[in-house]
Specification:
heterotrimer, A mainly beta (188), B alpha+beta (389), C alpha+beta (501), A: 188 residues, mainly beta, UDP N-Acetylglucosamine Acyltransferase, domain 1, ten-stranded parallel β-sheet, eight-stranded mixed β-sheet, 7% helix, globular, B: alpha+beta, Nucleotidyltransferase, domain 5, Actin, Chain A, domain 4, disordered C terminus, cytoplasm (chain C)
Chain lengths: 188, 389, 501
């Protein structure tokens, strides 16, 4: 993984570090200091904005269309302070989800139109159900499933598996239909 | 075993089984006669088609509204839960003896005029609950949603003059929880209270609260409280609003049923009063055959507390002269308490009584009235006269 | 297109007094009256599973307690469970060296991610779980209840014995009449006569009663678990009331006890007019089909009324409202307008005529045997319509008749553009197209009620061609009959604005 850039004055617009074998479509909207790990797939129309600090995304994640991963500057906060958003491996960000928190573990699934607020910390194996909004301040224990209109919780037996098959399929087919951003490491 | 005409086993009879309803203020139990449990336990609510609100079925003020709500509700019960046509089927309604006559008349009107059933039988819940035990004598305590009703039944006959009824039931406990949470909120500024709906308070009552022991309550009154049980975090609605339900609330919410109010009445004194009002010879069999039915009696620790309270009160100054009882025995019916009355109705509905004692459609249509124990017309005993019931 | 979503704007008055939009009404072709869901008799036609769309015959449905045998419901969130398969390597019992791979199935809920493995149910080798598979029943209770049922039946029989002996209904003569016929037993005779089955002798009943064991009360009661005061409670492990009521007989306390239940079936219903006992709506038996065998919806018989344009409504001032009438039938129809009072008087007149007819018939009825066997028809009285007018509508004169041409399904493809000549008052009929006509009415909202909805009501008469021959009409006349029918309409014209006079 690359080191975190620490230029306070000049924030490079596209400080992208894309690892080898990561598929990042050209039509995706990436702003700020973003590091994307190997085998991660970023669909077109995905949005990753690193406003308040760098975003480090791990390996084998799938970020689908219209997913928003935003490291937002809270209103009234010091623009020079940097908060790193770390995302682990094997996560799935489904269509139109919004992720604003700072930390995420491995093998989580954010279902369609879910919303994870700033103060929520997600460990591993969690599934945030479709249209569920988590806005308060809390730490979700491992393997939590949030579902239903009232965001009911339960603890599942095991984590959702890494979508290896899907990643392989997308790696083969996305190339045929979209322009991809070239992998760039920190040294180049 | 007599098997010639009455086929054993449930559901194999060629005759159409009667439908058994137990309408409660909060939940309605519905199923078929002769079965071991109701098909569904549904909330007594109806979704108003115009504005989408849910309304309680027995809440209406005007007769028209009540009729419409009942029609809608019973329609849902038949076509969503029972999945049978109401027409030309017998119906058994398990009702409390203290059910208002207007509700009875309205039910009869709805069933006969709108749904065209073939016959209707009202059975008193306290008496039929005994058929789930096979005994004839018991002190039946029905702890429901809005009120607790105690009626002794001796040799199959309800001793009506000894009835006791108090609004010390589920709603009282929920109100207590709500009050206690509001107090906490004022003192601790805890969030989340404002969003609590009735359903959530009911959920808190069922899942987090329990009935504590008499010993601990007495110690708390003497200002020597025992350490509280741990508090519980309850999720209120979407977002992450967590409401902290302190151990104090968890333990003491149900005490409202046992605190003696200004008239020194609590659930346990009601039971002893009912026994006291009965003749002396009945008292011992009643005390040794206590049957608790109704959803509120299923709370964790309820039966243990009632036993403790009865033993304590019977020995205390209030009752030790009037009652010389010291042993109290409880029955356990072969059903969960919240549908024991329904089961009694289902057992009755499978026998001949449903064909001989029901009010048939023709009889109802003659004068559009339901025979009621309150009215003297149906109460004068005349051996030679054949009655329609 | 607002009429698809906001269907409470134009409402028709059903015969029973309920107000419904046209899409919610039926039209009985035999009584020639409107019927709504309230005044029609609903019946269950067939049972089917909404997941696998399998039909169950009603007898089987009753036996299986209205549950599908192949589909399961998640006990946690009450959605349907899906079957997932995994491949498991199992050692072959005969040949220790070999490792077989077997397909094992478990059920999972896609909504809350609950699986059967969460409660410890073993994976099944077959895809469809048989009835003895997972859902367990509380058998000890069931046995006791069977015993109680028998006991109650015996008591009932005893009571009947005593009553019959008191009333002495049976005479020996009655029994002798038919038993000489071969093949008939006393049981058959009783059944023919409509009497309940014969009772066994009281002595046998009493013997069986003596075998019964009543319940015994105990002094010990379930105690409060002592660790409740110290143990941390994770409220997520306690079941909610809804989850408990999904399995009423077991009602588990904790989520460990939640077992999947068989999926509840759904029904297809048919509707029947209460007066003439004909079906007004009858769906097809196939659950996958949305068609109907009989579908007499009012939409296909009664002209539809829609609001086209509205002028802003100000209290006391006349405003224009343009309303379109659409003719749904294959015959031309003639419309004429009358006020609500006239319509109500007509209805009352029809009712009194109807009762005099039946009174004549009833005079003969008590003597005929058919009245004993014919079931008593119960008809609820029509109620007064529960709506208050907040505006007046000025209708065209009573003699004005608007002709609507028949509905022609091929009209949109027909380019010939034949224009029929109608002699219309241009002040009333603004626009015509195929089977529709837009008419202009004037509405005067009431004063001093700004902010409320302006509700107007009127009635219109239309001609309906009745293709059903009723017994009342002589069978020699096979020609379709033209009948004048009348319908009452109530319209919500929108909010009355605040305005100066």
């Amino acid at each position: 993984m690359s080191s975190i850039s620490s230029h306070h004055d000049a924030k490079p617009k596209h400080d992208l570090k894309i690892a080898l074998h990561a598929i990042v479509c050209h039509e995706s909207k990436l702003r700020g200091d973003i590091t994307i790990g190997a085998h991660t797939i970023v669909h077109p129309r995905a949005t990753i904005i690193a406003e308040a600090g760098p975003i480090i995304i791990g390996e084998s994640n799938i970020i689908e269309e219209q997913a928003h991963i935003i490291n937002r500057l809270p209103p009234g906060a010091d623009p020079s302070s940097q908060i790193v958003m770390e995302i682990g491996n094997g996560n799935v960000f489904e269509v139109d989800c919004l992720f604003e928190s700072t930390k995420m573990g491995d093998q989580n699934v954010l279902e369609v139109k879910s919303h994870v607020g700033r103060e929520v910390e997600i460990k591993s194996g969690c599934i945030i159900g479709a249209a569920c909004k988590l806005t308060g301040k809390e730490v979700l224990p491992e393997n939590t499933v949030v579902y239903g209109r009232n965001c009911a919780r339960r603890i599942a037996m095991d984590k959702p598996p890494i979508q290896t098959l899907q990643i392989e399929f997308l790696t083969k087919t996305l190339v045929n239909y979209h322009h991809l951003k070239k992998p760039r490491s920190a040294n180049s | 075993m007599i098997k010639t005409y009455y086929e054993s086993g449930m559901g194999l009879s060629t005759e159409r089984q009667a439908v058994v309803f137990d309408f409660g203020d909060c939940y309605t139990k519905v199923g078929f006669a002769g079965e071991a449990g109701p098909r569904s336990i549904v909330p007594s609510e109806v979704r108003c088609p115009k504005d989408g609100r849910t309304r309680k079925v027995f809440d209406a003020v005007k007769a028209d509204e009540q009729y419409n709500l009942l029609v809608e509700f019973i329609h849902n019960l038949y076509f969503r839960h029972l999945l049978v046509s109401p027409k030309d089927r017998r119906v058994v309604v398990v009702e409390s003896v203290l059910c208002p006559t207007s509700i009875r008349e309205m039910l009869a009107k709805v069933f006969f005029m709108h749904f065209e059933i073939s016959s209707l039988l009202f059975v008193p819940s306290h008496v039929v609950a005994l058929s789930t035990l096979g005994v004839n004598t018991a002190l039946v305590v029905d702890m429901g949603a809005t009120e607790t009703i105690v009626i002794p039944v001796y040799e199959g006959v309800a001793v009506l003059h000894a009835w006791q009824a108090q609004p010390l039931a589920a709603k009282a406990v929920e109100r207590q929880i709500s009050d206690m949470l509001q107090e906490r909120e004022k003192s601790n500024q805890s969030e989340g209270y404002a969003n609590l709906t009735e359903k959530m308070i009911e959920d808190i009552k069922v899942r987090a609260c329990f009935v504590t022991t008499l010993g601990r309550t007495q110690k708390a009154r003497e200002d020597k409280p025992c350490p509280c049980p741990p508090s519980v975090n309850y999720l209120v609605g979407p977002g992450s609003n967590m409401l902290n339900i302190s151990g104090d609330i968890r333990e003491n919410a149900f005490n409202i049923l046992f605190e003696q109010d200004a008239d020194q009445i609590s659930v346990s004194t009601m039971m002893l009063d009912a026994i006291t009002k009965c003749p002396i010879d009945m008292r011992k069999p009643l005390a040794e055959n206590i049957l608790l039915i109704g959803g509120t009696s299923m709370a964790v620790g309820m039966k243990a507390r009632i036993k403790e309270e009865l033993s304590y009160l019977a020995a205390s100054a209030q009752y030790s002269e009037k009652l010389k009882l010291r042993t109290f025995k409880f029955h356990s019916p072969p059903a969960k308490e919240n549908y024991t009355a329904w089961l009694g109705g289902a057992i009755y509905g499978a026998t001949d009584i449903v064909s001989t004692r029901s009010l048939s459609k023709e009889a109802y249509l003659k004068d559009k009235k339901v025979p009621d124990w309150v009215s003297l017309i149906y109460n004068t005993l005349n051996e030679g006269v054949k009655r329609s019931i | 297109m607002a009429y698809l979503v906001r269907n409470d704007i134009v409402q028709y008055a059903c015969t029973c007094g309920q107000l419904r939009p046209i899409s919610f009404l039926y039209f009985c072709r035999h009584c020639l009256k409107l019927r709504c869901g309230f005044c029609v008799c609903h019946e269950v036609e067939s049972h089917y599973c909404s997941n696998c769309l399998e039909i169950l015959p009603s007898a089987e449905a009753r036996l299986k307690k209205n549950r599908c045998q192949a589909c399961f419901d998640c006990p946690n969130c009450l959605n349907t469970l899906a079957v997932r398969g995994t491949t498991v390597s199992v050692r072959d019992p005969d040949d220790p060296g070999k490792v077989n791979s077997q397909k094992k199935y478990y059920h999972a809920c896609f909504f809350c991610r609950w699986t059967t493995r969460d409660v410890g149910l073993p994976d099944q080798a077959v895809q469809t779980v048989s009835a003895n598979g997972w859902a367990q029943k509380n058998t000890s209770n069931v046995q006791r209840i069977t015993v109680l049922l028998e006991h109650a039946k015996l008591l009932g029989m005893l009571e009947r014995h005593e009553r019959e002996q008191r009333e002495k209904k049976f005479t020996a003569r009655f029994r002798r009449n038919f038993t000489h016929l071969p093949g008939l037993t006393a049981a058959h005779v009783r059944k023919r006569a409509g009497l309940p089955p014969e009772l066994p002798a009281p002595s046998t009943i009493k013997v069986n009663l003596a075998e019964f064991q009543p319940a015994v009360a105990k002094e010990t009661v379930p105690e409060l678990p002592t660790d409740i005061f110290t143990k941390e409670l994770d409220i997520g492990t306690v079941t909610t009331l809804t989850q408990r009521f999904a399995q009423p007989e077991t009602q588990p306390d904790s989520i460990e006890g939640l077992l999947p239940s068989y999926k509840h079936l759904s029904t297809k219903q048919s509707q029947r007019c209460r007066e003439c006992e004909h079906n007004v709506s009858k769906p097809e038996l196939n659950p996958a089909s949305i068609k109907f065998k009989i579908q007499q919806a009012a939409y296909f018989y009664v002209p539809e009324v829609r609001i086209v344009t509205l002028e802003p409504l100000i209290g006391g001032k006349p405003s224009e409202v343009v309303i379109v009438f659409i003719n749904p039938s294959q015959h031309p129809t003639t419309l004429s307008f009358i006020t609500l009072q006239e319509a109500e008087e007509e209805i009352k007149q029809h009712q009194t005529e109807g009762t005099t007819d039946t009174a004549v018939q009833q005079g003969e009825a008590p003597l005929s045997l058919s009245s004993l066997t014919k079931p008593v028809t119960v008809v609820e009285e029509p109620r007064p319509i529960d709506i208050s007018m907040t505006g007046e509508v000025q209708l065209p004169a009573a003699d004005v008749e608007i002709v609507l041409p028949p509905k022609d399904d091929a009209a949109e493809y027909d380019d010939s553009g034949e224009i029929q000549q109608f002699h219309d008052d241009p002040k009333i009929v603004i626009h015509r197209r195929a089977n529709k006509a837009s008419l202009r009415f004037t509405v005067v909202p009431k004063t001093d009620i700004a902010g409320e909805n302006c509700v107007i009501g009127f009635a219109f008469r239309y001609t309906y061609v009745n293709r059903i021959s009723t017994p009342a009409i002589a069978t020699s006349e096979q020609k379709p009959q033209k009948v004048q029918l009348c319908t009452r309409i109530f319209m919500n014209c929108g909010k009355i604005l605040e305005g100066t006079q």
